[in-house]
Automatic annotation (TrEMBL), chain A:
This is Uncharacterized protein. Keywords: Membrane, Transmembrane, Transmembrane helix. It comes from Paenibacillus oenotherae. It comes from the Bacteria. The chain crosses the membrane at residues 30-50.
From TrEMBL, chain B:
It is a multi-pass membrane protein. It comes from Paenibacillus oenotherae. The keyword Lyase does not apply. Belongs to the amino acid-polyamine-organocation (APC) superfamily. Spore germination protein (SGP) (TC 2.A.3.9) family. Coiled coil: none annotated. Its main location: membrane. The chain crosses the membrane at residues 12-33, 39-63, 84-102, 122-142, 149-172, 184-205, 217-240, 270-295, 307-325, 337-357. This is Spore germination protein. It is found in: Membrane. Keywords: Germination, Membrane, Transmembrane, Transmembrane helix, Transport. InterPro entries: Spore_GerAB. Pfam families: Spore_permease.
Amino acid sequence: MLILIASFAVIGYYQAALHRRLKTGRREKVLAYGVTGLAFVYGTLCHYSPMWVNPNNAIRLVFSPLQSWLLQI
Amino acid sequence: MKQKGSVTGLQLGAMTFIFVFSTTLAFLIGPLVKTASFDGWLCILIGGVAGTAAAVLSLRFALRRPDSNLGQYGSQIVGGPVHMCIMLLTAFFHLHLSAYILREFTDFFVPSFLRQTPPLAVAVLVMSAVVALTQSGISALFRFAQGCFIFIGLFFLLKPLFFVSALDSPMWHEFARVHDWRALWAQSFSIIPWYGELTMLAFIVPHFAAKLKTSKVIWISSMLGTYILIVEFFLIVLFFGPKLAGTLIYPALELTGFVHFGDFLYNLDALIVSIWFMGFFVKLCAVFAVGTLIFSEAMSMPYYQPITAPLAAIVVAFSLVMSRNPEDLASFFSSSWPTFALTVECLTLLYPLVAWARGIKASSLS
């Protein structure tokens, strides 16, 4: 968890430098930090319950039956 | 975000060539030999032609407005909410694909060359390099691909010469007929989305130089990549035999272990894996960069650079949680990924279809 916090601190610092360099507006800053926040929440969830946040489960649930049907044709 | 197009025909061809065979060569040939055996080369050919055709169709529509990104004017064709859904789903697909490529790399590299190194450390280091290249822009990525193309293309064109003795085999007769039509259909279906990934080019059209014969370049380079794949498939089957090749996890990389320069230079694995890694890295960067670009366009952000690092963090997280072991990953990618990928890739075809149905001309859009 400490590694995660340290990594996102670095990402936040790097983002702030990019915002200064690109002279981005308020909306872009809010969006970019929002994405970083979401990434941090996702990273935390991955740390504590990796099976819940595995995107493959959702993809498999929807597309596996469809593929089985398609390949039977 | 807008740049004057500077991607030349050679750069586009190099990117397409590397894109087609870099990951396919390492991760797809093993399962293909196991399931389709001697019919595998036909699956590659059918998948290659169908996938490239799908990609070129969407690209041709995007090329009608060479100065604008499809992500920016697409809402005028299909409507804002539908466009937003397509963009977010396409961005997710590219980021998920980046995570898959990264995971395949760590699964292969950590046990072979980086023993006792945590996969998290390898994934973070690779993605740091990807973020650095992505920050440099799409045009820089194509220039990088052009540089790598010379090494990779030359090596894979010369590689069959090292296995001339294996080519004299009675197995050639088996390649001339179809053994199992059902396996042929199933495996061709699995290969189409690997080529269909080229639809990503429709989202970066403004980066192409003017008067570039894009469709022609893509067809030629895609078929050149297909030729390399088919030759590699023949070499693997003829050298190992279909049964042994089917049980190997990375048959193409095992095959490189038998490349020798005369009697004085053995064990070229590290050099060959380094050459292959360049292709793999180019593909990972391209897929990630396009995913980031599409996501930024969906959010109407003028710059994508500030979100590359957090999206790279999500890709690393995806790659770590997406499966418990390589077998689980392979099972997922054979059971549901091709349909998911084809569905998302075909979403790009909605734009020309809706434009045609509503009588919208691309040039009339603001």
